[in-house]
Design a protein that fits this description.
This protein is α+β, with helices and mostly antiparallel strands and 473 residues long. The chain has helices at residues 37-42, 50-57, 126-141, 181-189, 193-207, 214-235, 285-300, 307-319, 321-336, 346-360, 364-371, 384-397, 403-410, 418-429, 434-443, 453-457; strands spanning 7-8, 19-21, 31-35, 69-71, 75-77, 80-82, 90-97, 103-109, 124-125, 148-161, 164-175, 237-238, 260-261. The chain is built from 16 helices and 13 strands. The chain is globular and about 65 Å long.
Amino acid sequence: MQTTIPFHNTYAQLPAPFHTPQAPVPVASPSLIAVNRPLAADLGMTLGDDDELAEIFAGNRALPGAAPIAQAYAGHQFGGFSPQLGDGRAVLLGEVITSGGARRDVQLKGSGRTPYSRGGDGRAWLGPVLREYVVSEAMHALGIPTTRALAAVRTGERVLRQDGPLPGAILTRVASSHLRVGTFQYFAARGDTASLARLFGYAVQRHYPGAQDPGAFLRAVIARQAALVAQWMGLGFIHGVMNTDNTSISGETIDYGPCAFMDGYFADQVFSSIDRQGRYAYSNQPHLIVWNMAQLATALVPLMPDQDAAIADFTEAVHAMPDLIEGERLRVFGAKIGLAEPSEGDATLIGDLLQIMEESGADFTNTFRALARGKAADEFTDPSPFRAWETRWKSRIESEPDWRARMEAANPAVIPRNHRVEEMIAAAVAGDDAPFQRMVEAFARPYEDLEVSAYLAEPPSPDQIVRETFCGT
């Protein structure tokens, strides 16, 4: 059986300013690490043998119907605007319509230089590829809107990084689209209103068919981003590089570079090695997504006939976003402590628990998981403040039906902990993919107490703590 993908290439049919035709650059000796067979089935793919899949997902063998391109976009990176970024190491093969009628991009990441590489080699090494595979699939199973991992291959080549030569790899990523805030900024910064209008029409048709104008579109994107960031907060997830080029119009989590999940709860936790000022700290994510939406609003203004009125309208939408995020966050954390319909007064109860957790360094994931089982006190070095809080909490939930089941469904048993991910990467570099395969299997069922869960749920010992994560280059 030969591998086939039923491509539909609407983005490639847009004119030249949107992208550049770009075939993947072949690699020396590809070998398959993993293929996500359930996802492939949903995409309507047929799969050949492993050798053929390795050639295809490395970019060595073209697929019939593919129209490979590198997409153009701009973006604010740590607050500074870059008018041209684009896919510097990725190639969009095309789009697929799923069995449910949804349109999905299929992209190779790490597939070689493109016109947007800006001096880079266009490649990826094995560690970031496996990190994104594991974390993105875990996020999907956790119920978070996200890009997906379809396949990972070794290239049989080395890539040069600061740490020396490292094994190369390529990720095949699936997304609702790869349209970003930075895609709109790309045309707005050039004063190319005609292309901006065409992009707007395409994005509406693909993601928000009910949006009749840029104002409605902006509000729809804001709503999705508010919900997304609240969900991140509920998992202790830190994206690490919330630049506007890493903010998807679809409301999916995209570009897993220096991402991480907190172990002990610290509101201002930062993991990214390049985030020296804490711009993308855990607690700052709600503020930064508002800032990013302000940049999208600015890019949409040229589409409006009355730009002064548009600025006023868009400003109102952006200024309303913090309350929207807080409402979503209250809903997420309310479920984590068993509340079906939390009120504003419950925000204090939730905030007090987080403060107690921070003061003792209690494990974020394990504390919430243990709370439903009456064992959360074990997570605290001094349980006395928690016991006082627990008395208040029990009084609050005693009239809540199904609170325990609600908590079990809102609090995972396992998340991709940094030290376990690093162990997995080290094993894979040494040629052992078994830890990677075990993680993929476990994180496909993160709310279940599997045999491997106890190991994966262990917080790091002092010598295992990962203090920095690095961009996926």
